[in-house]
Structure formats: C-alpha cells, structure tokens
Amino acid sequence: MRKSVPVCLLIVLLAVPALGADEAPKSPWSGSLGLSFLSTTGNSQTQSLGLDLGAKWVSDPWGLEFVGKFLRSSKGGTTDAERSFAGVRGTRSVSERWSLFAGFSGERDTFAGFDLRAVVEGGATYKFLLGPVHELAFDGGLTWTRENRVVGKDRSFLGGLLGATYKWTLSETAAFTEKLRLYPDFDQTSAWRITSESALKASLTGRLALQLGYDVRYSNRPVPGFRKTDTATTVSLVASL
Length: 241
Prior knowledge:
Structural class: mainly beta
Shape: globular
CATH class: Mainly Beta
Strand content: over 45%
Radius of gyration: 24 Å
Distance between the termini: 54 Å
Strand order of the largest sheet: 1-2-3-4-5-6-7-8-9-10-11-12
Number of helices: 1
CATH superfamily: monomeric porin ompg
Helix content: under 10%
C-alpha cells in the first residue's frame, strides 16, 4: 500500500502539465483580409479590385487597431475610381464602458478631389450596449485635418468627431455591422463630412466568410468641381487571420 502512494503522486504530477498544455493562452492578435474582384469582357469591359485589411491587438487595458483599404475600378481600360486608406488607433480602457482613444489616418482619392487627407484624432468612447446580441458604442472627440487638394488651395483645420459603431449578431455565423462618423469643421462650419460603412457578413467555414458591404461618403462642401456623395458596393471573400 505504501509503494502505491509515490506512484499515484508521480501520475498526478505528470498529468497536471498535460492538462495545462491543452489550455493554450489566447493570442492578443486578431485580423482579417478581404478581397473582391470583378472583370467583364465583350460588349463592356470593366474591372474592379478591392482589398480590405484589418488587424487588432488587445492586452487589457490597452488596445491597438490598424485598418487598410484599397479600391480601384476601370471601364474600357480607363481608371474611373481609385481610393486608398490607412489608419491606426490606440485605445486605453478606464472602465467597463469608458475608454480613451488616439489615432491617425491617411486617405488618397483624386476622384474626390484630394491627393491626401491626413487626420489626427483623439477622444473618448462610451459602450452603450455590451452584447451579446447587440453592441453599440459612441465616439466623441477632436480632430486636426490636412487636405492636399487636386485643385484650389490646400487646407489645414481643427474639427470634431462624433461617431457610432453598431454590431448585430444575427446568429453564430452571421452578423451585421454599421460604422457611422460625422466630422464637423470648426473653420468652415458648412464643410462637414459624414461617412457610413455597412456590412453583412456570413461565415462559410471556420476561417472564410462572404461579406456584402456598402460605403457612403458625403461632403457637404466638396472640392470645387466634384460631387458631394460617393458610394461603393462590394462583395468580398474575407479570411480570418
């Protein structure tokens, strides 16, 4: 009986590390890559390419998020739309619902009238709904914007940021998201902007999903000679990284 006690202890000591190995720590990194492509030939010759990259790092209370977008379309061999965007935002949680943020973004869209629009932002986020079905958060803060325009004088000005981010989990494999942003211009009050990004995403496999997106960008006082509203509809294949 005495000999069996050391044997039992040895078995327990060997089993504990094995149990811990099954519970690997969750990686603080997550990301996704979306790709869309359309090409037609014959009576009409069109091509469009879309790329959407997202990466997020979370180590409570800190967080970091990167977003990159590229969209290009051509008709008859002539480019009629091209837009690129890259942005990074850092966050710091101060409670379950409140957090602070600071970020920087750069955007190029010559078909909307600017070679570069750089925005520095900072403010606070309040989580109104915490899920699991509905998630809703509001942003508020200040911005500094620099615009290098295709025509006319370049601009630098102080502005604001009011935003809402919403997620509706329809099922275990489907979700709807909406990201709405209002950018007031403190220098020219009539030159405010609104952006809206809507997406419906459905999982195909554990890592692949199909996504339908619709983006709207509205400028109440656009660059002279350009329209106020731009829209983009995309159907893309998204891979979780």
